[in-house]
């Protein structure tokens, strides 16, 4: 489930990790899944903020910074895959630049 929480961020943005976290947050034996789904959810919230900022910068610069949303998308893809691989190996993965809004 931790692997799925990380990889669902690629496809469903923050909805997949949110659903996995909400389903498992009250179960005592699922501490690893809860921890990793919160981490994935926090990262997807950070990515959402980064997308909004990059789109605003693209509009303000009249398209000169058109590559920023693409870079955010590539970073999301790469870090979600790394997080999924680490979670599959049983290692707790921490995204390097995620805002920890959900504790």
Q: Structural class, from helix and strand content?
A: mainly alpha
Oligomer class:
single chain
Shape, please?
elongated
Low-confidence stretches: none
Number of helical segments with 4 or more residues: 4
Kindly describe this structure.
By secondary structure, the protein is an all-alpha fold. The chain has helices at 2-12, 15-24, 31-60, 68-88. The protein is elongated, with a radius of gyration of 14 Å. The model has no long low-confidence stretch (mean pLDDT 92).
Quick structural summary:
By secondary structure, the protein is mainly α. It contains four helices and no strands. The mean pLDDT is 92.
List the helices and strands and how they pair.
Blueprint lengths: L1 H11 L2 H10 L6 H30 L7 H21 L15
List keywords for this structure.
mainly alpha, 103 residues, elongated, 0% strand, 4 helices
């Amino acid at each position: 489930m931790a692997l799925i929480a990380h990889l669902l961020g690629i496809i469903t943005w923050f909805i997949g990790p949110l659903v996995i976290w909400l389903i498992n947050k009250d179960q005592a034996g699922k501490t690893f899944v809860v921890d990793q789904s919160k981490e994935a959810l926090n990262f997807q919230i950070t990515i959402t903020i980064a997308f909004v900022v990059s789109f605003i910068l693209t509009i303000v610069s009249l398209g000169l910074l058109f590559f920023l949303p693409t870079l955010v998308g590539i970073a999301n893809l790469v870090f979600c895959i790394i997080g999924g691989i680490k979670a599959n190996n049983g290692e707790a993965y921490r995204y390097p630049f995620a805002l920890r809004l959900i504790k």
